Amino acid sequence: MARVIMVLAQADGYPEGRPEERLEMRVCLTQQGTLDDDAWAFGPDPWRAVRVRPDLPQQAGEVVRTAACWALRDGEGDDAPLTTLSVGLVRPGEIVTLTDPGAEPAQFRIVSVEVD
Question: Which domains does the chain have, with CATH numbers?
């Protein structure tokens, strides 16, 4: 697995980003550096994620695959709303877009990828 750390690069109210707001995920990557569909589908462990905001409690959840896209689900169970996760290559400098239901998209910049 890989530990991926991202910081907020741009969002509504933060046009210049907010480096103290971050998203950390534990995911499996393909050799090409993308999220691994097969590892997610057949792996025994969930892919954990934590969203850290300085003004709110940490929000734990997991990365999930839907029929249409990758998404984040918070810790409220299978019926919790999903945050769409638009991600291509997982490497430092790349941008990941999160879209919460009913909110403007937020862009996060990958700052670290540590493979176990």
Answer: 2-115 (2.40.128)
